[in-house]
Automatic annotation (TrEMBL):
The keyword Ribosomal protein does not apply. This is Acyl-peptide hydrolase. The lineage of its organism: Eukaryota, Metazoa, Spiralia, Gnathifera, Rotifera. It comes from Adineta steineri. Keywords: Acetylation, Hydrolase. This enzyme catalyzes the hydrolysis of the N-terminal peptide bond of an N-acetylated peptide to generate an N-acetylated amino acid and a peptide with a free N-terminus. It preferentially cleaves off Ac-Ala, Ac-Met and Ac-Ser. Also, involved in the degradation of oxidized and glycated proteins. InterPro entries: 6-blade_b-propeller_TolB-like, AB_hydrolase_fold, Pept_S9_AS, Peptidase_S9_cat, WD40/YVTN_repeat-like_dom_sf.
Length: 618
């Protein structure tokens, strides 16, 4: 078999990568200003957004790109982490959106990772959650007037993984999701008075293995109601909790049944409406919930596709980040009552001609224990009826993520070259319920690989895939699963392509940034010293001797999530046992922000697969 890569610079698969993509966020109390993260320059950077005329002004010039930032509630400041070559360790920077002046707000601190940052509704308090190996996880608040900051105020510190918090209207209250009690995979909420952080105001605990996640406080003065979600029923459902009185209102969502997560997206400025997103069977549906009468209104005219985020605008519309399999991510406005499409908010970022995408459909198949696994199947348009196709089996970079019907140049690139492509939502993926998500905890890698093997079986039984030409691929956690499957089920695969992958969980724990160390402890139920057998069993390096198929690895040199040493050890062991392993190291961190670099990676994989197939043919 000879599948020659299409190398022309104007090839449709390359054009899709080069389309402008943007995520946008409105300042909560100044809807004329926003923050946009865009690849307009060819590398993702932060832009100040004049919402009324659509004008963008580039704020960052980082060589490895910048894809995360936060805009203050008044729109006067934008914040981001200034790191080194994408290593996600550095200092928090404040940019004045009027003058473009940049200020390091923690000049005297050692470098750290930023988890989350927010301002209160009146932009008088900045709160930021950071982590480092010396201090674990720390939540600070700072008083602020424009870009002048008061001294840091330590509110909370822990060695346990945490990532979510909310700050009240005036910054006097902070609620944080914690894992400081013995709750298995669960979490609870703790409320602090920022003026007296030693005193806990209240605590909310929904039980063992239950996650409770804060979203936001009401945007009204002296209102201590918190919008949050809990999966105590087995699926996420929203609720409002008054942190001062402990009164709780769980939303009436009976019409949605008992399947699919419901996530709160926004709370209207008058405190009367909640914007909700229901995800079930990979279908995204927006609802508005009226607090006064408990009525759940389905926005029935909402365009189909994937919705990443949404917020109310002052004119009653809803600003949505939306995409489909044939339309790249864009920011659109929907009617707040019906969900009908109104306008594209950033027309200048959408190219006039987008190469046609292939039809993608949702499929399900049983895993080894009978659990149904959902995935997205894409097939080439061909008149060839000769039989099954060479196939790419793709695992997303979770585990706490989900494969959706999104615009995906990587998928389209493979299908343009005649491959079938299946992306699966293995156990651990979100939106399929608490039991599905938590199944992998303390048994990392086992059920995910069971699901991957089940996907292979289904592809062959359906006549879609050639049994001897199925390649594995994935990035981050998906890259980890690629390497693990190649070692644990070595005779099933034609090869594997792993990007920024995990190779050895023990060394990974030793070398990772603190935020990832904390997450590993949550996944495994302890450290490598406490759970040595689990860490060894879950690590791809354990199974190197069993690998049969060739392996291609693309790894970043400055990644603190998947650091260098574990992969260097894996590479050395592969060569020690004379395995067919190629590895390409590139400058950068965990995020792939450079468009041309991403195209280069995809082209490298296409050429590699061609060589593997030609070698097998001879």
């Amino acid at each position: 078999m000879n599948i020659a890569p299409i190398t022309d610079e104007n090839a449709p698969w390359k054009q899709r990568f080069r389309l402008f993509l943007s995520r946008g966020y409105l300042a909560r109390c100044n809807y004329e200003r926003g923050l946009v993260v865009s690849n307009k320059s060819g590398i993702y950077q932060l832009y100040s957004w004049n919402v009324s005329n659509g004008e963008l002004r580039q704020l960052t010039q980082h060589t490895t790109g910048k894809e995360k930032g936060m805009i203050s509630s008044d729109g006067q400041s934008i914040y981001y982490l200034n790191d080194t070559q994408g290593d996600e360790i550095g200092h928090l920077i404040c940019i004045n959106t009027e003058t473009d002046e940049q200020i390091d707000i923690t000049p005297d601190m050692k470098p750290y990772s930023i988890i989350t940052m927010k301002t209160d509704y009146i932009s008088r308090t900045l709160a930021y959650l950071i982590s480092d190996k010396e201090n674990g996880f720390q939540l600070f608040t700072r008083s602020m007037i424009s870009t002048t900051f008061g001294p840091p105020n330590l509110i909370y510190q822990t060695s346990n993984f945490t990532e979510n918090f909310a700050i009240s209207y005036d910054g006097q209250l902070v609620v944080i999701e914690t894992r400081d009690t013995e709750k298995g995979a669960g979490s609870n909420l703790v409320v602090f008075d920022t003026r007296n952080p030693e005193q806990h105001i209240s605590t909310l605990d929904d039980g063992m293995d239950v996650n409770v996640v804060p979203k936001q406080f009401a945007s009204l003065s002296n209102d201590t109601r918190l919008l949050a979600k809990s999966n105590r029923s087995g699926i996420y459902r929203p609720f409002i909790w008054n942190v001062s009185t402990n009164e709780r209102i769980d939303f009436a969502c009976e019409q949605l049944g008992n399947e699919g997560d419901v996530t709160p997206l926004d709370w209207s400025s008058d405190g009367k409406l909640i914007l909700l997103l229901h995800i079930h069977n990979a279908t995204f549906q927006v609802y508005s919930y009226c607090i006064d009468d408990g009525i759940l209104n389905k926005l029935i005219e909402q365009p189909s596709g994937v919705i990443f985020d949404a917020q109310f605008s002052p004119n009653g519309s809803i600003i949505v980040q939306w995409e489909t399999s044939n339309m790249p991510l864009q920011i659109i406005s929907l009617n707040g009552k019906t969900g009908a499409f109104e306008q594209i908010m950033l027309k200048s970022l959408i190219n006039d001609q987008i190469p046609a995408s292939h039809l993608r459909r949702s499929v399900t198949f049983p895993s080894s224990d009978g659990q149904l696994i959902q995935g997205w199947l894409t097939l080439p348009v061909t008149n060839d009826k000769s039989g099954p196709l060479p196939t790419i089996l793709d695992m997303h970079g979770g585990p706490e993520d989900v494969a959706t019907n999104r615009f995906c140049p990587e998928t389209e690139g493979w299908v343009d070259h005649g491959f079938a492509h299946l992306s699966i939502n293995y156990r651990g993926s979100i939106t399929f319920g608490r039991k599905f998500q938590h199944k992998i905890y303390s048994n990392i890698g086992y059920w995910e690989i069971e699901d991957v093997v089940a996907a292979r079986t289904w592809l062959i039984e359906q006549g879609i895939a050639q049994a001897n030409v199925i390649f594995l691929t994935g990035w981050s956690y998906g890259g980890y699963l690629t390497l693990l499957a190649l070692g644990k089920q070595p005779d099933l695969w034609a090869g594997g392509m792993a990007g920024i992958a995990i190779a050895d969980w023990t060394v990974q724990y030793e070398d990772s940034a603190e935020r990832l160390r904390g997450y590993q402890k949550t996944l495994f139920g302890g450290t490598p010293e406490e759970k040595p057998e689990l860490y060894t069993t879950a690590s791809p390096i354990t199974y190197v001797e069993q690998i049969i198929a060739p392996v291609l690895i693309i790894q970043a040199c400055n990644d603190t999530r998947c650091p260098i040493r574990p992969m260097k050890n894996y590479e050395a062991k592969m060569h020690q046992y004379n395995k067919n392993c190629e590895i390409e190291w590139f400058d950068g961190g965990h995020s792939l922000n450079n468009v041309e670099q991403t195209i280069s990676h995809e082209e490298r994989m296409l050429h590699w697969v061609q060589r593997v197939l030609n070698t097998n043919k001879t």
